[in-house]
Amino acid sequence: MEKIKFGCAPIAWTNDDMPELGAENSFEQCISEMALAGYEGTEIGNKYPKDPETLKKFLEARNLEVASAWFSAYITTEDFNEVEEAFIAHRDFLHAMGAKVIVVSEQGYSIQGQIETALFENSPTLNGADWKRFITGLERLGDLANEKDMKIVYHHHMGTTVQTTTEIEQLMADTDPDKVSLLFDTGHLVCSGEDPMYILDKYFDRIGHVHFKDVRSDVKAQVTQNKDSFLSGVKQGIFTVPGDGMIDFQPIMNYLVEAGYEGWIVVEAEQDPSVCNAFEYATKAKKYIDGLGHN
């Protein structure tokens, strides 16, 4: 496990998609509690300073590094020149912060931000022309990342056009491994009904970043039955930290260690912090992960 760095995502303190969740939590509280819980790094939220030197000052005082940050791509629905311009600014910021990977998710046609759209009944798909446009644009972003000796890690995600095993397999088959890597997210795979061990084993060589997120099976069943949206599911607590839900992380951790994974494992569990205190849950997750060791 010496080659693995453990980080925490700020979404447990303040939710970027629903700013009312954790509006009371400051940036300084968030990173201080991450450090106190024992993490080495962080992903970046909306409350973080946008200036690299300012952000470095805050993080270095707490011995935290930047693991990555999310980039919403609209390759299929917007002018690619605008996508490229936004991506370059995002890339340059992360490069200045010392990050090696850039989290990318295609948000064209996504329903993840639609509060009234049923999550499990309306997953979007791309037609042939849109898929080709998506792949071409994504590989272009990969080229731009490579210019800075970085790589993009594609985030399969609930409510988007790359969610299922079939869609992940198609993405991996149609993209150049030198240009597009994969982000392995336990929570989104299990929530979607996929087998995380299958994806981990089949695409380990393509995995450049890992999110550890757990799923509450009872809430998932409720969200499905009630035809709730992704954001409504988050509010209800469909996601939680490792060790608090339905996923057994022991075989996943064993595989990562035995296969020689090098990089970040980021705990990411968006919940309502007024119900599930972010610091308490971050601490619980870190203790659980430390207990996994390598068995």
Automatic annotation (TrEMBL):
Its EC number is 4.2.1.44. It holds the Pfam family AP_endonuc_2. Gene3D superfamilies: Divalent-metal-dependent TIM barrel enzymes. It comes from the Bacteria. The keyword Manganese applies. Pathway: Polyol metabolism; myo-inositol degradation into acetyl-CoA; acetyl-CoA from myo-inositol: step 2/7. InterPro entries: IolE (IPR023952), IolE/MocC (IPR030823), IolE/XylAMocC-like (IPR050312), Xyl_isomerase-like_sf (IPR036237), Xyl_isomerase-like_TIM-brl (IPR013022). GO terms for molecular function: myo-inosose-2 dehydratase activity. It catalyses: scyllo-inosose = 3D-3,5/4-trihydroxycyclohexane-1,2-dione + H2O. Its cofactor is Co(2+); Mn(2+); glutathione. Residues 34-277 form the Xylose isomerase-like TIM barrel domain. Keywords: Cobalt, Lyase, Manganese. It is an enzyme of class 4 (lyase). Belongs to the IolE/MocC family. PANTHER family: HYDROXYPYRUVATE ISOMERASE (PTHR12110), INOSOSE DEHYDRATASE (PTHR12110:SF41). This is Inosose dehydratase. It comes from Salinicoccus sesuvii.
